[in-house]
UniProtKB/TrEMBL annotation:
It comes from Vigna mungo (Black gram). GO terms for cellular component: cytoplasm. Pfam families: Aldose_epim. The active site is at H159, E263. GO terms for biological process: carbohydrate metabolic process. This is glucose-6-phosphate 1-epimerase.
Length: 296
């Protein structure tokens, strides 16, 4: 289903037969909503989000490409999240063993403007699909389309903002004992001690070489988000907390309580593609009642 969203921007709504849904803006190929079959919103979207190019939308799932972070000549988190993507009207079919019918393929290619700062030819296909159980699946395929034999490298993240009922009641499992780079301490490397992560102040860490499965447990909501990722070794955990929240114009002062970013990423070791080569990075999100998870 194709329609107009905020400020007349084009969006696609995916609906799955049991009632779950997702909304995707062509601007940024940005997933702004993912609802379960009870119609409950699972992603955080700021009430102050600006739906106006060239500003990236605050919340949902921004795509960070071809760069995570703010180094070098590229904009913070790259340009993919503030470009207009196009829909592929004739996408390649799903493998026959997948049941999903609710999906859309969005495409971004090299533009003259972007090649000034990032002089490479690429084609990026992002498939966004809803599984039969309401799972949200994002598959990125990035190809080097340069014919002159030039490789390129990039870093990447699915900058997912999960909606939580109270950040101080949230626990993240799957990152304990791992090494991380702390963005709040000059990207210095540390090792996470102890048990599951909990939150009582600003956090901005890049966990390295993580397991493919991470769980975000929302005690108050009795809901667990399960993040499964493939081709994405790292995971960023970010919450701006009160001070930084106040400093962000497109983020409410108290909204840090209701969100947590857990971002499947490839950052420490950039991906390099030779001409003709393709990289694939997959993210699968599910939301299940917490009781279902206990004892697993
Ligand atoms: C996180 C980074 O992924 O994104 C943070 O680790 C950054 O350092 C945050 O502040 C938000 O970035 P932006 O560009 O969307 O404001």
């Amino acid at each position: 289903e194709f329609c107009k969203g905020v400020n007349g921007l084009d969006k696609v709504i995916l609906r799955e037969s049991r009632g779950s849904s997702a909304e995707v803006y062509l601007y940024g190929a940005h997933v702004t909503s993912w609802k379960n079959d009870h119609g409950e919103e699972l992603l955080f979207l700021s009430s102050k989000a600006v739906f106006k190019p060239p500003k990236a939308i605050r919340g949902g799932i921004p795509i960070c490409f071809p760069q995570f972070g703010g180094l070098g000549t590229l904009d913070q988190h790259g340009f993919a999240r503030n470009r207009l993507w196009s829909i592929d009207d004739d996408p390649p079919p799903f493998p026959t063993n997948t049941l999903s019918k609710a999906f859309v393929d969005l495409i971004l290619k090299t533009s003259e403007e972007d090649s000034k700062n990032w002089p490479h030819s690429f084609e990026y296909r992002l498939r966004i699909a809803l599984g039969p159980g309401g799972d949200l699946m994002l598959t990125s395929r990035i190809r080097n389309t340069n014919s002159e034999g030039k490789p390129f490298s990039f870093t990447f993240a699915y900058h997912t903002y999960f909606s939580v009922s109270d950040i101080s009641e949230v626990r993240v499992e799957g990152l304990e004992t791992l090494d991380y780079l702390d963005n709040l301490q000059n990207k210095e490397r540390f090792t996470e001690q102890g048990d599951a992560l909990t939150f009582e102040s600003e956090v901005d860490k890049i966990y390295l070489s993580t397991p493919t499965k991470i769980a975000i447990i929302d005690h108050e909501k009795k809901r667990t988000f399960v993040v499964r990722k493939d081709g994405l070794p790292d995971a960023v955990v970010w919450n701006p907390w009160d001070k930084k929240a106040k400093a962000m114009a497109d983020f409410g002062d108290d909204e840090y309580k209701y969100m947590l970013c857990v971002e499947a990423a490839a950052i420490e070791k950039p991906i390099t593609l030779k001409p003709g080569e393709e990289w694939k990075g997959r993210l699968e999100l599910s939301a299940v009642p917490s009781s279902y998870c206990s004892g697993q």
